[in-house]
């Protein structure tokens, strides 16, 4: 029979898989649910490690496509340009993440009200951009100009504030740069691979002294559920966005943020 902690870990893994690749802030949801459920992990390592399950989901779904790009890169300029676009988009967040890691984890991750407020602000911005973004000029996520990739990477830095959403920041940035709604989501998927893998490795190293080996079972449960759930979400979300845009996610963010603030003010 699973312990209460393991049940909470399983629930949080499910939340991670459901929210990582839609622009609603998986980290924000994990932190808020963890706060209200009384779940705490040393150095917030649980929240970072289970995100790797979502990364593996992307690699699983896009394995054939990505492996084809890697095999073609030595002789195909288009494949190399795509890899360069991901690297260039990744670098800003890598630099900011390393420089501000301590402040982000010690202050921003421990402020539930900030998370809720950022969910609301991000939701309002998403509703506006979904309706008023410029006409798309770029339909292929694997063929974006390098300056646009860099701009998207700079937007990703905003997601250092929990509740902003990594996918939300990159998607909004891409839409403002004239990328189509579907291509914006897909580029965000690809960019998540180095970003989340790098965050996982760096966070694990920084918190090596406070890791609780007794919690490995809970982490494994959360990791597995995040992976399985994210596979289904990735396969579903592109078609949903192509048909409906991002308004649904904007309203989702606003509702979750308002409910969270109400619960915090109620002393929960």
From TrEMBL:
Protein name (database record): Undecaprenyl-diphosphatase
EC class (word): hydrolase
UniProt keyword Transmembrane present: yes
Similarity-based family: Belongs to the UppP family.
Origin organism lineage: Bacteria, Pseudomonadati, Pseudomonadota, Alphaproteobacteria, Rhodobacterales
Molecular-function GO terms, alphabetical: undecaprenyl-diphosphatase activity
EC number annotated for this UniProt entry: 3.6.1.27
Catalysis: reaction(s): di-trans,octa-cis-undecaprenyl diphosphate + H2O = di-trans,octa-cis-undecaprenyl phosphate + phosphate + H(+)
